């Protein structure tokens, strides 16, 4: 069986690397990182992405449009927002638009993110 793959997009390359390393230690799956919303969408066209994790504020992208584009390309792939945005209406809008979850960045949040991913894909 092919291992599951999580793709994490965050415009901060150092933060993306740290989160990627932490997720790899928590999940039984491959974790790829990118700093580009465009690259994340391109990778979604590959059949081996099982979960997409997006920073809510990727430069050059409206978060809900990016979510809709991802969902239209691969409706079977859960999309999780991992963000510093602390806005209940943003979380509600994201979930209404089809996000599987909205996890706020902060102490212990990578553990929470790993739990959410595990729930979504069984990793």
UniProtKB/TrEMBL annotation:
<dbReference type="InterPro" id="IPR011006">
    <property type="entry name" value="CheY-like_superfamily"/>
</dbReference>
<dbReference type="Pfam" id="PF00072">
    <property type="entry name" value="Response_reg"/>
</dbReference>
<feature type="modified residue" description="4-aspartylphosphate">
    <location>
        <position position="55"/>
    </location>
</feature>
<dbReference type="GO" id="GO:0000160">
    <property type="term" value="P:phosphorelay signal transduction system"/>
</dbReference>
<keyword id="KW-0597">Phosphoprotein</keyword>
<feature type="domain" description="Response regulatory">
    <location>
        <begin position="5"/>
        <end position="120"/>
    </location>
</feature>
<dbReference type="InterPro" id="IPR001789">
    <property type="entry name" value="Sig_transdc_resp-reg_receiver"/>
</dbReference>
<protein>
    <submittedName>
        <fullName>Htr-like protein</fullName>
    </submittedName>
</protein>
<dbReference type="InterPro" id="IPR050595">
    <property type="entry name" value="Bact_response_regulator"/>
</dbReference>
